[in-house]
Amino acid sequence: MIYRVQRLILLVFYTISMAALSIPLTRLVTGLFPNHLYPLVVFLVLYMVLVVVLGSMIHTISYIPFNLARAFDPIKNDIASGKISDMEELGKRVSQFLTTFFDFAFLDIDYAFLHTEQAGLVSCDELPEAAPAMEEFGMLEKSKTIREIIRAGKITHGHNDYHLYILPIWFGEKYLGYMGLLSKKRVGSFFQKYLMEFENDFLDDQLMHVARNTV
Description:
Beta-Lactamase; alpha+beta
């Protein structure tokens, strides 16, 4: 409840600030180009685009940290209760979670899959192109040499090309596998940090818990 109020105050403050800032800027443009409507129209369009882009970034930045834990709780609870008891089921649930939760303008995951030595490549979606491509690249072995998310090129699924991101999963010094993330849009380095925090704060220990129970 407190978070919602704080976030509402932030968005209201941003909206009022942008509206207030537009007044002197509009006067400046009309002063520089008197009796000319075209520069004013161009300025207003560009300003509206800027407001929308910045607003979208603020929405993403303010939403993820406070909602990620609560959204991931059902998966943690199902692991604790034994409803999720193997890597295949975990891979399906986590891939579905990633594509559902990370649905933002600057961080939009279209498809995801979990690749481990125990269960192979698992996803909630049908990704027939992914398994042979990952095997050809030897991605399971290569991902053991990285500690942070990387962009590993592009992969074609259906009629679309997607940027492929590899998110290695480590529990301390133990390598557990990796998440493959497909996105039509490039994910900026700033927003990639949210994915690494998800792996470090939520995914690695849950994956380790399931791995120990399936040994």
